[in-house]
Design goal:
Length: about 270
């Protein structure tokens, strides 16, 4: 009985909104991040779960294509609570490399090394987020990683938290520079755990305010293009005590990854 209870799909249905390339920013990051690629390459069973893929399987198909650049035998499983969405996705399946199944935060009894959960927790209350994280991580290997985030409808603004068994590791902000008015625009797409914390006195508010200040100060660089302006913004941000994690992100991506401790809610 206990085993069957654990396998009951856990969660609430999402709106299901999705578009081709909507998650390209996080896909690209997953296929290039050192910790993620190292995890995939050394895994005995390279299973990845895409949780809550929505009304169309397109972003799960795209994820599988990106991750095959890292490891050709990677297996991607899309999970949805709605059985109609699972049935609709079936024609896109290519087992064992790509498949679809009904499931929620319990991960349908699987043990993936990596979980991507995008635009899923935004409909939950902030206090429900840690429990959802814990349930997913409890069904993963000890070294597994959860990447949980939010993006806008066309994927131009995107943010995500990387979470390990012992807690959040980092926050990544990703913005299309050509359309960017100011970096704090991304605040409307912060993960649920942070979106209500963008107020004075909180670290995430301080980061976004500092980014806006550095972006404004870097305005003279715009004559050389938005990439040059972003590079100067990150340089100024680093000088003001917000160094990015890992290697500097390619300027064209408009990405910044910082340690979770730098933005964690107070």
């Amino acid at each position: 009985m206990a085993g069957r209870a654990r396998l009951n799909p856990v969660g609430a249905p999402t709106r299901g909104t999705t578009n081709p390339n909507r998650l390209r920013r996080v896909d690209r990051w997953l296929a290039g991040d050192a910790a993620v690629t190292r995890l995939l390459r050394r895994a005995a069973d390279p299973l990845v779960v895409d949780l809550g893929y929505g009304a169309s399987p397109v972003t799960t198909v795209e994820l599988a294509r990106w991750l095959r650049r890292v490891r050709t035998d990677v297996r991607v499983l899309g999970l949805e609570l709605d059985p109609d969405r699972v049935a609709y996705a079936r024609p896109a399946a290519d087992p064992p490399r790509l498949d679809f199944r009904r499931g929620g935060f319990e991960l349908a009894g699987t043990r993936p090394i990596l979980v991507r959960a995008f635009n899923v927790l935004r409909q939950y209350a902030e206090h429900e987020v840690p429990g959802a994280w814990a349930l997913m991580l409890a069904n993963m290997p000890a070294d597994g990683l959860l990447v949980e985030g939010t993006c806008d409808e066309i994927g131009r603004l995107s943010t995500w938290v990387t979470v390990a068994a012992d807690g959040p590791v980092s926050l990544t902000l990703s913005m299309r520079l050509a359309d960017l008015d100011r970096p704090s625009t991304v605040a409307e797409r912060l993960p649920k755990v942070l979106i209500h914390r963008n107020v004075p006195g909180e670290r995430i508010h301080e980061l976004l305010s500092t980014m806006d200040s550095c972006w404004a100060a870097a305005a003279p660089q715009r004559s050389f293009g938005v990439r040059a302006r972003w590079t100067e913004t990150v340089r100024r941000l680093t000088a003001r005590g917000w160094p990015p994690l890992g290697r500097p992100d390619p300027p064209r991506l408009g990405e910044l990854t910082v340690p979770w401790a730098a933005v964690a809610p107070k």
